[in-house]
Amino acid sequence: MKIFDSHCHLDDAGYDGDLDAVLLRAHQAEVAAMMVVGIDLNSSRKAIAIAEGHDGVYASVGLHPHDAQSGTDDLFQEMTRMAGHPKVKAWGETGLDFNRMHSPRAAQERWFVRQLEIGGQLNLPMIFHERDSQGRFLNILKGHWNSNRLGVVHCFSGDAAELAAYLDLGLYIGITGILTVQSRGQNLRAMVGRIQAERLLVETDAPYLTPTPERNKYRRNEPAFVRTVLMKLAEVRQSTPESLAAVTWANTCRLYGLPTGDPAS
């Protein structure tokens, strides 16, 4: 199998001491490609640096809603320049998070719109974060989206109506280790069968959201564990892991504009 971890944060300081070992374990688990997702200027720079040094590793640039209060026009000018790097294949992680409110709502909405505009200008797929926005994320997105654009709602944890709306917009859906957790993943397991196979992605969101059973042994998630997400998703959808790996690989390559063959440097 070839598995693509469509969303991870290998730029996190928790990997500084053993990144090469983390990547080796990923390859041993048949995880042949990874998208390292930027959440602010520094993490985006680090994501690009990691991608530069490793085959099959790609990067995105963007400002997470938690960090929206740090947004400035100058910051986005610099990020736009960085997005020209050949290893940058997406814009994001961006969106709205009204759960923890680490940044004011006005700042989140302002810079979400700006990033939607930049992603469109650069013709880059978008990586979206949404939590507890009470429909506001969808309202803004619909005003700045068209059928020619590509994007993924990463770590989907919404309800059936939200899922249907995302699919109607042509978005991909990222499935994390939440799927494997007995109580927390119950609703997600009930909904994943409604997602068309060609819209499915698997991801770790590492170092967060470690799947079961790894979460019983390890505090830190890592790309190798996306294999567990894939296996559980195949079980729930009554598919073979091999066929699902091939489908999600092709989907992720399509989203990020990559060839579907062996990962390029």
Which characteristics define this entry?
globular; TIM Barrel; 8 strands; 265 residues; alpha/beta
In short:
Helix content is 37%, strand content 16%.
Characterization of the model:
This protein is an alpha/beta fold and 265 residues long. It has a single domain (3-256), classed as Alpha-Beta Barrel (TIM Barrel), CATH 3.20.20.140. Helix content is 37%, strand content 16%. The protein is built from 9 helices and 8 strands. The protein has helices spanning 19-28, 41-52, 73-82, 105-122, 136-142, 160-168, 186-191, 226-236, 241-256, and strands spanning 3-8, 31-36, 57-61, 88-97, 126-131, 151-153, 172-175, 200-202. The protein has an 8-stranded parallel sheet. The longest helix has 18 residues, at 105-122. The radius of gyration is 17 Å and the shape is globular. The mean pLDDT is 97.
Helix and strand topology:
Blueprint: E1 3-8, H1 19-28, E2 31-36, H2 41-52, E3 57-61, H3 73-82, E4 88-97, H4 105-122, E5 126-131, H5 136-142, E6 151-153, H6 160-168, E7 172-175, H7 186-191, E8 200-202, H8 226-236, H9 241-256
Parallel strand pairs: 1-2, 2-3, 3-4, 4-5, 5-6, 6-7, 7-8
